[in-house]
Amino acid sequence: MFDRGVLERVYGIADWKDDPWTHEGRERYLKAIRKFRDLFKHPWLAGLLHSSLSVVDLGAGRGIGGVALVDVLEEKGVKTRLVMVDLRRDAVKDALRFAREEGVDAEAYVMDALEVYKLGKYDIVLMYGAILAHFDEWSLPRLFASAAEALKDNGVIVIEEMDRVNALFRGGFKEIIVENTDPEKLSLSVHVRYDPVTGSYYRMFTRLRDFETVTVPINFRSIAHIASTLWLFTKDVDIIPAGMGQLYFILGKEPRKAIGPLDLGEDPMVVKRGLWVKE
After folding, report:
1. How far apart are CA 135 and CA 146, in angstroms?
2. CATH number for the domain whose boundaries are 4-163+221-256
3. 127 and 158 in contact (C-beta within 8 Å)?
4. H helices then E strands: how many in the chain?
5. Strand partners, 85
6. Which segments of the chain belong to CATH 3.40.50.150?
7. Which residues contact 218 (CB under 8 A, 6 or more apart)?
8. Global pTM value
9. Angstrom distances, CA of residue 92 to CA of 57, 128, 144, 165, 207
10. Cα 231 to chain centroid, rounded
11. pLDDT digits (tens, 9 = 90+) for 207-221
């Protein structure tokens, strides 16, 4: 996981459509509502539909996923407590504003998703919007350990993600990508290097108008990779297509309570030191 400043800068350069006040962001929000309506036909989630539920949205951004989920629950007559967590201060402020505008009561915190277990227990832990690309191979199990620790005994983890490995295999890896096509915000990303220890591909994002530049790690995984890792922390998992393309929902049901966040508190030797080089 990279630091707050880097995250805020890259979201300022790339066009990742997390702004619900743009046309694209609004369409993404309405699409999320439709997706959740279908998803709650799944028996694990349908079984949670009681009079009240609690939801924590990790990597909430400006609130599109969490607010859409609450909209669907309240359509079903379920009173919902929503807590949103993100590392970006500006996103947290906007998420609260968006929730208010949509008539959703919510709390929001500027914090690392790896520490969400400190906020208590929830019926649903949500990760919406393909946020796992921000977590390297050592942060991912820590994220899932924290999410499972924050889950009630009969709760469900809900992850929306892209099968990035299949997308790369079918479409090919691109050294250069146009990230934002708006002439006023035109930006590119360029591959810089690969780190075999973290599994991260480092890309440099540049806004051409002012040459604002930031380099960030991006992580590519298959849906099976994500689901099998989640299985270490929940008793059962399921995978559901989430519309067209490479998007899926991955569900994890009931925490195993075998490996907790504190068990993964210290980095292994290879992460501390890097690759061992024979002298």
Report:
1. 13
2. 3.40.50.150
3. yes
4. 9, 11
5. 58, 109
6. 4-163+221-256
7. 133, 200, 201, 202, 203
8. 0.95
9. 11, 15, 22, 30, 24
10. 17
11. 999 999 999 999 999
